[in-house]
Every structure is written in structure tokens, then in C-alpha cells.
Amino acid sequence: MSSNYRLLVKNAQQVVLICKDGEKFVTKHGMQNLCVIENGSVVIGSDGLIKAVGPAETIRAQYSESSFDKVIDAAGMCVLPGLVDAHTHPVWAGDRVHEFAMKLAGATYMDVHRAGGGIHFTVEHTRAAGASELLTSLRSRLARMQRAGTTLVECKSGYGLELHTELKMLEVIQEAGRTLPINISSTYCGAHAVPRGKTVEEATKDILQVQLPELKERMSAGTLRVDNIDVFCEEGVFDLRATRSILQAGKDMGLNINFHGDELHPMNSAQLGAELGASAISHLEEVTDEGIAAMATARTAAVLLPTTAYILRLPQPRARDMLEAGVIVALGSDFNPNAYCCSMPIVMHLACVNMKMSMPEALAAATINAAYALRRSDTHGSLEVDKHGDLLVLNAARWEHLIYQLGGHQELIRYVVIKGNVVVDNNKTMDLYPEESPPRCNQ
After folding, report:
1. pLDDT tens digits for 334-362?
2. How far apart are CA 263 and CA 314, in angstroms?
3. What is the signed CA dihedral for 93, 283, 304, 332, rounded to 10 degrees?
4. Residue 47: which residues within 8 A CB-CB, separation 6 or more?
């Protein structure tokens, strides 16, 4: 006789729901005041969706443990939603470890780019790599992200810059999504750079007349799923006019607009994205006051990438100004050969230290708001009934340890669960810290 339910996580010292009323995102007060249940439990059904979350005594009275495939006693531990990484470039060949020394010696991002490094170096190696090689490395990188608590990740193409390799990358992303438990949002980023030997106009024409039509045909035939479209809108890359035409063409195909903007120069990308109804804009180190206001009004998410500013020694994104203006702030690792970080807990830590976000703000930005940036907040990003049963169980008595502790996540994260299945089990123990807990959420 089969069980009615897949998983019961019971008796957790804290269950962090993030929000509890079906919010698609949180801003301002909602980011500062997360919904936390003390001594709570979570029920996940045989379909992998959350069936109940609430005080442990309430769940105990309603459900028999014998009806579950697996029971986790989380006494003294914390339960959080799985983390969402809203911006990554995880498909590539040929690392760029040699460039790190150049940057440490003072070379800027564009210095490296002009010297033949950066994106073009990776494009050369990725074009030459076979799909099986790319899939093997992608699976390894996604597994590392999963071990650090990521359960939903955005994955971009963009190291092909021509049809064949861009399709190869998107197919590799799709195959990884089919064969790994981690949830993936796939992004076409054929406008990641202007290919060598081409002008912006020529590159834009190739995307509009060659790449996107083939992508549309495969999507219509059901052989390829793509969720988002991305452009690197920047001086010396794609200007506002080219960016607008590519993003609009993608939107007309049904893709969510989710692009790089205002990173190295104030390009007015934020205003353009707001005008086009973009789901999200990433980077924004050089965003203007007008851009911030436009994003707040349009409900376009700002995906901030603390690792990029840290590694490239750029000005920090103006997180506090965005938060105070009511912008939906999300976080991403920007995992790529230039910013090699697989860990959203480290990203949250950097967001707090360098961008002056609070710990609740950082957690909301790495869960419900990052899911919103990917148009997945109806199914991911919080622990609410009918959402995916994706969660973390921490070997700590307070959830803040996930951000407070810099590294060492295999000791801290005991379980990673995706759709009710335990996909990571770090059988470790640590001393618990019985400190004062956040206020109880009314249930």
C-alpha cells in the first residue's frame, strides 16, 4: 500500500515561510518582516507539492506519521524555502583563472575584454566543446549549487554568439533540467557580446533574422523550451536601440525579458526595461534615480549580483536606494568564468556586508523575489500550500546562520529537498545556538 504523502518535516525550531498570503513578491516592510513559525512542521504530498505548513502540534493532530514515505525530525533545526539563483552563466568550456591575476593587477573588465579575454575567450572554447563535455561540466556545477541550497536556478546561453553554439548550449541546459532534480529557468542570451569581426548592426541582424526565427520554430515544435531573453546592454556591446529591438522580438515570441543593464555605464537600461515590461534587469551598478523610479513603478525586479561588484571592484549596486524606492530586489550569483561562485549563502552574506541589506531582506531577495524575477513565484520562493516542496533543513537553531556563517555550508545545511525528495543529505552535526528567535507569525 503506497503512502499518501512523500515527506513530513516535523518539530523544526523555526519554519521560515517568507510570506503566507500568496504574495508574488515582497518590498520594503514585507522584506523586513518575514513570516516565521516557531516549532513548526511541513507536509509534502506524493505530487511533490506542499500540503500543509504550520505549528507542529496542529500538523501532529491532523496527519499520521505512518502515511508518509519519509519523516525528518528537525528538532533544534530550521526549515527555509529552497534558495533561488536568479542569474547564472553555467554552460561554458575553458576557465579564465589567468584573468584573475590581470584583474588583481588593475585591469578593468573592458581591458580584459579588449585584450581578447573575457567573453570572447570563453566563446572560442565553448564553440569547440562537444555537447557531452558541456553537459558534464554543467551537471557538476549545478550539483555544487544544489549542495549550497539552490533549488531553482536561471541558466543562460551566450557563449556561442552564433546559431549552432547557442542552440547547443540551450539543448544542454534542457537536458540538465530533464536529468537533475534542480529546477531550471532557461535563458537565450545570444546578445551577450558582439562577435569578433561583426558590427553591432550585423550582430543584431543575425539575432533577429537567423537565431530568433530558428529558436521560435523549435519552441513551437516543442523540441526546445526557453523561458527568457537576455541582452548585454552596455557601451561597446549592444546599445539601447539594438537592445530594444532584440528584447521586443523575444517578447513577441513569448519570452520573458530578463537582461543585463546599467553595469559599467548609465545606459538608461532600467527605463528601457520598465517601458518594455521586463521581468527583471540584472547588475544595475550604474542605475540612475530615474531608472530606479521606473523599475519600482513597472514592478520590474532588480537582480543584484554582489559577487560581480566584489570581484571586479565596481561600485556596489545601490540596494538601499532601490529598497527604499519600493523596487523588487532579488539576488543572483552571476556564476560564470569571471565570477566563480556557486553559493547563494555567500551571495546573501556579501549583499548584507557590502550592499547594506539586512538578513531578512537578503533572504527574501534570494527566495520569493528571485522567483518573481523568473516568473516562478507562483510555484517557488516560499513555503506555502500548493507550492513546490523545495526546502532546506539547517543544523542551526536560528535561520540567520545561513547568512551569518561565511562558507562551510555542508556542515550547516543538513538536508536539501526538492519536490519532497531529499537530494542532499549532509550527515553532519554542529553545536546549536539557542538564541532569541524572531516573532511568531500569526497562524
Report:
1. 999 999 999 999 999 999 999 999 999 99
2. 9
3. -20
4. none
Q: What is the pTM of this model?
A: 0.95
Q: CA 282, CA 256: separation in Å to the nearest integer? A: 13
Helix axes 269-276, 289-298, angle to 10 degrees: 20
Chain CA centroid to CA 3, Å = 33
Residue that the C-alpha cell 527583471 belongs to: 280
Q: What is the Cα–Cα distance from 339 to 393, expressed in whole angstroms? A: 27
Q: Please list the residues that pair with 73 across neighbouring strands.
A: 10
CA distance 49 to 52: 9
> Distance between CA atoms of 396 and 412, rounded to whole angstroms?
7
Q: How far apart are the first and last CA of the chain?
A: 34
Question: How many alpha carbons lie under 13 Å from residue 319 in its C-beta half-sphere?
Answer: 24
Cβ–Cβ under 8 Å, residues 366 and 82:
no
Asked if residue 438 lies in contact with residue 36, where contact means CB atoms within 8 angstroms, the answer is: yes
Question: Position of cell 557563449?
Answer: 159
Comparing C-alpha atoms, which of 266, 261, 219 is closest to residue 243? 261
> What CA–CA distance (Å, rounded) separates 362 from 85?
12
> Three cell numbers at 1?
500500500
